[in-house]
Amino acid sequence: MRLYEFEAANLFKTKGIPVPRQKVVETTEEALSIAGEIGYPVLIKAQVLVGGRGLAGGIKTVSTPEELEDTAGQMLGSEIKGLPVRKILVSEKADISKELYVGITIDGYSGKPVVLVSTEGGVNIEKVARTSPEKIGTATIDPKFGFYPYQARSLLRKLGLSKRLLGSCADVINRLYTLFTEFEALIAEINPLVVLPNEGLLAADAVFEIDPSAVSRIKYPLPDRFERIENPMERKGKEIGVTYVDLDGDIGLISSGAGLGMASMDIIGKILRPGNFLETGGGITEELLYKCMELVMMKPNLKAIFINIYGGINPIHEGAKGVVRYIKEHQVKIPIVAKALGNHQEETWEILRSAGVHVVTEAATEKAVDRLIELVRKR
Amino acid sequence: MSILLDEKTRVIVQGITGKIARVQTKWMLDYGTTIVGGVTPGKGGATVEGLPVFDSVEEAVKETGANASVFFVPAPFVLDAFYETIDAAIKFIVIVPEHVPVHDVMKMRSYAIENKVFAIGPTTPGILVPGKGKMGIMPASMFAPGRVGIISRSGTLSYEFAGILSENNVGQSTVVGMGADPIVLANLPDILELFEKDDETDAVIIVGEVGGEQEERAAKYITSHMKKPVAAYIAGRFSPQGKRMGHAGAIVRSSAGTVEAKWEALAKAKVTILESPMDVSYWTSKHGFH
Asked: Closest by alpha carbon to B194, among B174, B177, B214, B180?
């Protein structure tokens, strides 16, 4: 679950990480009043859940109320990388003497947290990592041992940070690591961590993403998980417990397992265009597949539906009943091709055929896609 | 010998009294797996499918001589049960559940390595040795005995590949689901190593997918350690890339994780690239694997 910058900054504050004076607003009027309190110039920052916001025009400096009105007016209601801007953050513009980068994430292969630090923070940090990797300090952490201030100091010392800043910067990094573990983050990032002329520090941006599997056990008033998903079909997918991605084609897809779903898309995509990706996860039930049909059919103008499922956890005929119930209740007219294998497969095929579903009984997805193409071309 | 699971494997089912676990226990028994009991804290003394249920793993091991465990424990309790299982000296564990929190998996991985325990998952359909036994949820109808090994990141794609091979009269030595999570307890090279040593496996198929760097690491391993022929299919060529937050992920990874990057790494390691699942049967028939 991704947090907006203002939510992440509030979280940082609870752990004593210094953040700028700032407030999130939804109207130009509110923005004017907050900027008046903070004092110009201020930063106007679009609150969207995507990286690279700065380079996409989502962060602007304004020096006067007139400028603020123009900028905030334009930004609110605009789109950044396809996401609507509903909230903006009005933030104190700090004097910068140095910008650090601090990031914590998980290395999937070793299965360990990694702390990354650089004295060359800012929007170009990925370029720095590619062209001058020596300017990034990396520490791989034993998750049972944890991360201690000496490790942060050692990273910073190697990067040549002045002695006077070692203690305070290491302190911020360790506080961020504490948040990372307590809130079971997948990523926690401050970019930039600003060093002020008086050598104070300010976390001038905040990125934080919580492991969705851990959200329910975190004792902190987190915002609604689903509200922040912009696409209504993707939101419904999360609500019924499946992964749905809206695409611009016209073939509906229901698959069990991400790998099988991706393989289906790869094969369909050679000739036809998938209108969505849908992955059920394990444990297919009648109810779940009924809801999957409902979800896939939310998209208008589909030419056909392709179902590719295996029954592992549950017998597969349960799911077939859900598909058939939907077809009968809603009198679905477009062709449906299904490959459904696993426990109780013969029974499953019979159930599906009873509602006019085109059943393919071979294992290879290609064979089922051939049938799909044939049916779509016929129409 | 197959890998990880053979005639000497004595399996306990953890979380055996759950609804799904009961059904799966029956199916594992039907397939010929030696299951000796189950564990659910607080349900000791009960029986499931005629098997004794114990309150603790320690008791189960003492009473049954179990040396392997398959988990149907609810995700929030997996970490605790995993530590318990390792402390009871079980050396092979299969974690079927999905949605185990990532920070728990990190700790599990660390503890397993420290105690020299081989574990696969989470979010794995498990492991199946055709005709002999299975730990997990793989649907038996897809598999046939033979000499080709399969390792898959995706559960259902492992069934698909086994199914295609079986339809073409090519059997499998062992089929292993690595688990679909971003962090897994056994990485691809760990499992390749077992297949390379297994004298009942002639060739290995990797079923990978876009993202992460398992396949790139496997390519390195194959170059330096493997003599057996390997073919690989990577799903996700046309998958849309998700919107990314922050920079840390991009800085940490040594590879872009794209299908093309994986193909390149694997081809360099002389692995045959399968562009589509059905290509696997052309590969096996061309080389006479069965």
From this structure: B174
